[in-house]
Specification:
There is one protein chain. The protein is built from five helices and no strands. The protein is an all-alpha fold. Helix 1 runs antiparallel to helix 3. The protein is elongated and about 85 Å long.
Length: 143
C-alpha cells in the first residue's frame, strides 16, 4: 500500500560525523571569554584607560594566541554609560573565567568591575558642574 522510504531521514546520524570540527567545552569557554574581554577592551580604550586596556589586551592575546586589534571607536556615549557597559562586560567575563577556572582573568575582571563601580559612584567635581553633586549611583546588588 505504501512505498518504502528510499532516502535517509534527516534524523539519521551522518555517515561521517567526524567530517566537521568539534570543540571541547574548554575551547568554547576560551572563545567566549576572549570575546567578552575584547568587548571590555574596546570600552576601556574608549574611556581612555590605557594601563587597564593593556592588561586586558594581554589576557585576550593569551586566550586567542594573537594580540587583539586596538582602535578606540568613539561612540560619543557619556562616561557614566560607558562605565556601566564596561561593568556589565567585566561581569560576564568574570562568570566565564570562573567557570573555566582561569584565575588571572577572573581577578582582572573583578578588578575592572570594582574600578567601574567606583567610577560610577564617585560624585562629579562640584566646580566642574557648578551645582551640588547628585546622590551616588548604586548598582542593584552592590555592597
Amino acid at each position: 500500500m505504501y512505498e518504502p522510504i528510499r532516502t535517509k531521514s534527516v534524523h539519521t546520524p551522518a555517515d561521517h560525523a567526524d567530517d566537521f570540527p568539534h570543540r571541547s567545552r574548554e575551547e568554547e569557554l576560551d572563545i567566549q571569554l576572549a570575546g567578552h574581554l575584547a568587548a571590555l577592551l574596546a570600552v576601556t580604550d574608549e574611556l581612555g584607560l590605557g594601563e587597564a586596556g593593556d592588561r586586558i589586551a594581554e589576557q585576550v592575546a593569551r586566550l586567542r594566541g594573537a594580540p587583539p586589534a586596538r582602535r578606540a571607536g568613539l561612540t560619543d556615549a557619556a562616561p557614566d554609560t560607558l562605565h556601566r557597559r564596561a561593568h556589565a562586560l567585566a561581569g560576564r567575563a568574570l562568570v566565564v573565567a570562573a567557570s573555566r577556572a582561569d584565575t588571572a582573568a577572573a581577578i582582572l575582571a573583578a578588578e575592572r568591575m570594582d574600578a567601574h563601580t567606583a567610577a560610577m559612584t564617585a560624585p562629579p567635581p562640584a566646580a566642574a558642574t557648578g551645582t551640588t553633586a547628585p546622590a551616588p549611583v548604586r548598582l542593584v546588588g552592590a555592597l
